[in-house]
Each structure stands twice: as C-alpha cells, then as structure tokens.
Amino acid sequence: MRNTVRELRTRRGLSQGDLATAMGVSRQTINSIETGRYLPSLPLAIALSRFFGTTVEEVFDVDR
Amino acid sequence: MSIDEGSAHGTRSWKRWITPGAAVLGGLVYLVSGWSGGDRTFAFGGLAVMLALAVALVLLARRSETVAGLLDGKDERINHIDGEATGIAGRTLMAAVVIGFVVEIAQGQDGHPYDMLAMIAGVAYVLALVVLRIRR
C-alpha cells in the first residue's frame, strides 16, 4: 500500500509531530504510516484525507 | 467513527492512571497477602516492587510515546501492537502450561495444577471467541 501522507504533510510545512497532534496519534504512528510499515484504520485514513482536503483514494493507493 | 482530537502524548486522561493504579492495588494485595501468611519480606518487598513499577510507568510515559500510548490507549498503532504482544504472551503461557502438564504426566503425577490452568485458558478462549463473534 503506497501513500502520499509525507508529500501532503511536507507541502503544508508540517512536522510529523504537528500532524500527530492533529490526528490524536503518536509521532511514531505518523512515521510508520509514511514509511508504509503501518496501515491505518479506516477512521484514521479518512481523518487524514479530510485533514489534507482530499479523498482516501488520493492519499492511499494499493500497489498493483 | 471518532478520531481523538487531542495529542496522544499530551492529553490528560484518566485512562493513563489505570495501569499504575492497578500496580499500586496489586502491591497492596501483596502486602495483605504476605502479612496474612506471615511472610513480611514478601509483603513489603512485593509492595515496594509494585510501587516502583507504578512510579516507573508514570515517569517513562513522559519520555516515551510508546509507554504513554500503552497507558492512555489512544494511539491505534500502539493498541494493535499491545493486542498482538498480549496474544503472543498468552500463546507462550499456554505452551508453557501444556509442556508443564505433559512433563507432570510423564513423571507419573496427576498433571496438577497445569490441567486446571489449561482448562481455564481454554474456557476463556472459547468465551472470548463467542462474545467477540456476536459483537462483530
């Protein structure tokens, strides 16, 4: 599963800690999501997408 | 669907006191148990160890996101890790119980108390399976 969380975050000038605070998770969790080591729950994926003003499909994409 | 809007690290939450509180309660149980049984070394030693654990958890939570996440239960990744680690610990314990039971039987014993421990684990597993299956 690929995602664009890191690109979306850095484009807005946010640190992992900033995004973690906004999402109510730890900085480590944001790092794990960005590196693809952790697949977030659907509620967290939707919250991330809404935070960046985009859709889940545009943030997360299945490797084919 | 709800995403906690507070920081997993900074939000004050009563949940983060459950585990340290349980450690203190366990220490008090050890104190009463050891005192009742006449083993004051165990009574005070057990209380001291559990109090030290409670203090260590509270202090570590200020430095470690992982410990903070384990205590307040707000980080879904840490919760998943906690669940998986608990499962691994449970399976390891079950394996130890079964091995202990088999060794006891091989030595001509009746298998106590391993047989009862295995029965408790088996019943707990089936009950958990049924309840979780109904809820999901």
Automatic annotation (TrEMBL), chain A:
CDD domains in the cross-refs: HTH_XRE (cd00093)
InterPro entries listed in its UniProt record: Cro/C1-type_HTH, Lambda_DNA-bd_dom_sf
Keywords recorded for this protein, A-Z: DNA-binding
Full protein name: Helix-turn-helix transcriptional regulator
Pfam families noted in UniProt: HTH_3 (PF01381)
TM region(s), chain numbering: none
Ranges for domain HTH cro/C1-type: 5-59
PROSITE patterns (alphabetical): HTH_CROC1
SMART domains found in the cross-reference section: HTH_XRE
TrEMBL record, chain B:
Keyword Membrane: yes
Top-level taxon in the UniProt lineage: Bacteria
Segments passing through the bilayer: 17-36, 42-61, 81-102, 114-132
Keywords noted in UniProt: Membrane, Transmembrane, Transmembrane helix
The protein's name: DUF2178 domain-containing protein
Organism: Streptosporangium longisporum
